[in-house]
Amino acid sequence: MPTPPPSRVLLAFDGSRQELRDRAAALAPIVRQHFEVASTHEDLDQAIDEKELGPDGAEWVVAMGGDGTMLRTARAMGRNQAPIVGVNLGRLGFLAGLNPERLDKALGEIAAGKFRIVRHVMLDCTLVAADGAETSRLALNEAAVLAGEPFRMIDAQLYVDGDLAATYSCDGFLVGTPVGSTAHNLAIGGPILRKDIDAVVLSSINPHTLTVRPVVDSPDRTYEIVVADPNPGTRLLVDGKVVGPLRPGDRVRVERSPAVFQMVEVAGQTYYRTLRNKLGWGSRPRAPKETP
C-alpha cells in the first residue's frame, strides 16, 4: 500500500549556524504552503523525541542543510525513523538532493502523492569493552576503526558470524552501508553500491599488501573487528563521530539495525544522475584553469 503524503512535518536544521538559521527561516514559508509545520528541531545533537515526531507530532521531517545535516538528523531520530526530505543548503548535497529553487515544486508533487520512499540499510555499531561494558551508536554511513596516534599500522582482525575471516595490517578498517559507500569508503578506493540494495562493504584502509580487496556482503551477518595491540590513539568512529578508544581486549560489533533510513525522492532524482552531477562519475577529467 503506497505511503500517503504527510499533513504535518518537522523542520530540522543546525540552529547554531546563523547562516543556516536565516536560510531555513526564508524557506519555511514555502514548506507551510504545503504542510503544517508541527515543530522545528535546531539542536541536531539532541534526540528528536516522540512528542516532536510521532502520533501527536510530525509525520515526516524536512531537513535543511548539507549531507552532514542529513546524518545528524538520522542520528537524532534514532530508532524512530520517519521519511525525510533533504534540502541542500551545503556544498555537495548527495543525500540532501533538493536544491532550494526546486523546493516549492517538489513539495507540491509530494502533497499530490507523486513521490517514492527509498529505504536504506542502517547499522547498529557497538564498542564492547574487555569488561563487557557496551557503547552503541546508530550508523547511516559507516563504522570505522582508525589506527590513530602515533600512526603505526594496526593488525585488524575481521570476524564474520564468529569466524575469523582475515587479518589486515592497515591504517584502519570500516564497515559501510550502501549510502556510506560514496563517503569514506569511496575516498579509500572502495566500491560504489547503489543506495537501496541490501548489502555492506568491508574495506581496509591503506593495507600493506598487494592482495587485499574490499568485500561486499550481506547486512544480515554479524561483523566484529578486533585489534589485539591498538595504538594509544586507536578509535572507533561512527559516521565521523568518535565513539571511544579501543583498548586491548575490546572489540567492535556491527549488525543490521531494525531502524531503516527513509529517503523521500521526487521525479528527476535518480541514482546515476546524482553520481554524475554530484560526484562527477563518468566525466572526463578537465585540466584546471591556470592562475595568471
From TrEMBL:
Xref: HAMAP family: NAD_kinase (MF_00361)
Lineage summary: Bacteria, Pseudomonadati, Planctomycetota, Planctomycetia, Pirellulales
InterPro entries noted in UniProt: ATP-NAD_kinase_N, ATP-NAD_kinase_PpnK-typ_C, NAD/diacylglycerol_kinase_sf, NADK
Protein name: NAD kinase
EC number per UniProt: 2.7.1.23
Cofactor: a divalent metal cation
PANTHER family recorded: NAD KINASE
Enzyme class: transferase
Name of encoding gene: ppnK
Main location: cytoplasm
